[in-house]
Amino acid sequence: MTARTLYDKLWESHVVTDMGDGSALLYIDRHLLQEVSTHQSFLALRERNRPARRPQTSLAVPDHAVPSDGRSEALTGLAAAQVARLADNARDFGLPHIPLDDPRQGIVHVIGPEQGFTLPGITLACGDSHTSTHGAFGALAFGIGASDCATVLATQCIVQKRARTMEVRIEGELPMWVGAKDVALYLIARFGAGFGTGHAIEYRGPAVSAMSMAARMTLCNMTIEAGARVGLVAPDETTFHWIDGRPYAPQGDAFRTAVDLWRTLPTDRDAIYDASLSVDISDLAPQVTWGTNPQDAGAIDGRVPDPDMAPDEAARAQQRRALEYMGLTPGMALSDIPIDRVFIGSCTNGRIEDLREAAKVAAGRRVAAHVRALVVPGSTPVKHQAEAEGLDRIFRDAGFEWREAGCSMCVAMNEDRLAPGERCASTSNRNFEGRQGRGGRTHLMSPSMAAAAAVTGHLVDVRQIG
Amino acid sequence: MKPFVSLEAPALHLVEDRIDTDVLFPARFLLIMEKDGLGRYLCYDRRFDAADHPVANAIDPALAAGAGIWLAGRDFGCGSSREQAVWALTGAGFSCVVAESFGEIFAANCLRNGMLAICLDRGAIDTLGRASADGPLRVDLPSQHIGRDDLSIAFEIEPAAKQRLLNGWDEIDTILARAAIDIDAFEAVQRSSQPWLFED
Asked: Given an 8 Å threshold on Cβ–Cβ distance, is A227 in contact with B105?
């Protein structure tokens, strides 16, 4: 039998019908739904009078539009209508639903793994591009649009093109204060925002094996910013240990049977990838972005680039436009950039490990007088865990606002957003124009770097103050 | 779904790399639950100021001229999976985007909405851009060509995608009509090998 990659195994074990042209009708084992991307999907089913084929394979939760300064009592207007619509749709189609006031509520990509809904070896779809997050468990997980959500609900399948495979080997050992977010930004800056387009990326190597599940999720989460819909890490003991005992995971004998099956998933020794990249991160510095795409990133001890030095006219024009939007001067030190706001949270960096890392920096310090800083746990269980560990106290004492779980300031469709011209140190995933609010200026970084920016009032190398 | 066969329309020549779906359809408008009428929000923050007054931009003159084709750069539609980006484009009158590359989820969403996404190199896109200054471009899907007058540039498209656009069939109906037995068979096998996925 030919040697196969993890992606090959996941793909081939879910083909219902091979279309013969590189695409297939692919079976979807599990489907996460949130309020913003699914109302038209349910409408499409209602118009055709179609039921959900296997409603229990879905899990619906509100996260994008929800307030972080309260729960359902704080919901108003269009957001309230959207959250209510999700509840109505879940009820009418028989889908499991976690309401806003439920102790399990949170961002889809945080609660899926947390509840054990995300498992190795499965296919998982969600109407959200950061569904790549779940690939950290060795699941074939990808974002889809509203039309495809309807198709998954009605048929449990989707027509999908098989991706090419790409191996990204991460050699070395992560230095102190450098983590998965820095690795992700570094990869995108070094190889370009579209380097993964058309591929399913599998992260491998000693640095990946040493990563916690939270770090692997951050890495896979950011994969869509490299242009790839799918990011993967092969399941191992770290994965199995993490899943054991979670509510939706198989229990007892079924868990042991499942682990035996999951052990067959990693890429075979002689398997060949369509493309391979390798980096050594032993000397990596903390990364920050200066522009309007995640590829506009560099080491914190560097400078804002000079567009005149860019390789071609298209890149020069792009950099000029980005620097104008960001209000930055070519050549200025990145650590001289003052900030107005800090956002710690999101599906990229809203897990308990991320909050612990930020709290280590915040402990015993004060948020700079001109800065407003938010800490938004990725889920309500993360919030409760952080409170049990006293992290909320550390953040509050330092002058951070401690909020309720949700997407918050990552997406600017709830009350948490930047005012025009405001500059934010953010642990989220996108620094696109207007992403955190019209005219808002986003600098992406890790949780410890964001906390360091909060207490100094400007972008700063956490290694100097940590 | 509306089929796509051919199109003759003016083009918007705005070759900028990485026009993401947040630019195409700003997130705050995602609270709108209707699908129709989203064309007015297309690239809203490029077309209107913070007080909702129109500002000079490259897009509005093309919309006024009835543009149906967008000539774009690299990674068009990258970022968020929001299908509203495609609905805003179709709502504003576009049914074809030509770019060096596309965000993958965006490209899939195009296909589900009768929007033809064509990949060409920058040279060909620039040639089309110059030609579009003289008048409408013509796109013909059956013969896989785009151009004007004597200019005719061939483009690639996967056979299955081409068929879907040409016939405009409903995806759910098609799957259930053609593959219902296959899906049942797949589930039977999966149920015995991974019973923990079938506790419903």
From this structure: no
A373/A459 same-domain check: yes
pLDDT at A16: 98
Structural domain boundaries enclosing A442: 287-465
Cβ <8 Å between A21 and B105: no
Which of A43, A155, A313, A430 to probe the B interface (max B CBs under 10 A)?
A155
Alpha helix ranges (H) inside A335-390: 346-349, 352-362, 380-388
Q: How far apart, in whole angstroms, are the C-alpha atoms of residue A208 and residue A174?
A: 10
Instruction: Give the pLDDT confidence score for residue A354 in this predicted structure.
Output: 98
Q: What is the pLDDT along chain B (200 residues), one digit of tens a residue?
A: 889 999 999 999 998 899 999 999 999 999 999 999 999 999 999 999 999 999 999 999 999 999 999 999 999 999 999 999 999 999 999 999 999 999 999 999 999 999 999 999 999 999 999 999 999 999 999 999 999 999 999 999 998 899 999 999 889 999 999 999 999 999 999 999 999 999 87
Q: State how far the Cα of A397 lies from the Cα of A176, in Å rounded to an integer.
A: 25
A227 and A135 share a domain?
A: no
Same domain, A101 and A244: yes
Question: Which of A75, A153, A159 is the best substitution to test chain B (most B C-beta atoms within 10 A)?
Answer: A159
Q: Is A240 in the same domain as A218?
A: no
Distances in whole angstroms, Cα of residue A447 to Cα of each of A253, A349, A360, A400? 39, 7, 10, 13
Give the model's pLDDT for residue B74.
94
Residue A374 covered by a domain: yes
Beta strand A140-143 with A164-171: parallel, antiparallel or unpaired? Answer: unpaired
If you average pLDDT over residues A317-341, what whole number do you get?
Answer: 97
Q: Inspect the interface and report whether the beta carbons of A254 and B28 lie closer than 8 Å.
A: no
**What's the CATH fold of domain B6-157?**
Aconitase; domain 4 (3.20.19)
- Region of A183 please: left (phi>0), alpha (psi -120 to 50) or beta: alpha
pLDDT at A1: 66
- Alpha-carbon distances, residue A304 vs A318, A332, A452 (angstroms): 14, 5, 19
List chain B domain ranges. 6-157, 170-200
Could you tell me which of A328, A319, A405, A303 has the C-alpha nearest to residue A98?
A: A405
pLDDT 10s digits, A67-81: 999 999 999 999 999
Task: Look up the pTM and report it.
Answer: 0.97
Q: Which of A63, A152, A158, A197 to mutate to test the interface with B (most CBs of B within 10 A)?
A: A197
The average pLDDT across A245-265 equals 97
- Say whether A413 and B194 touch across the interface (CB within 8 A): no
Q: What's the rounded Cα separation, in Å, for the pair B50 and B52?
A: 5
Distance separating the N- and C-terminal Cα atoms of chain B: 32
In the structure encoding, which two tokens stand for residue A277, read together? 């990249």
Q: Which residues is A157 bridged to in the sheet?
A: A27
User: What is the predicted ipTM?
Assistant: 0.96
Task: Enumerate the residues of chain A whose CB falls inside 8 A of the CB of residue B25.
Answer: none
| Residue B192 distance to chain A (closest CA, Å) | 12
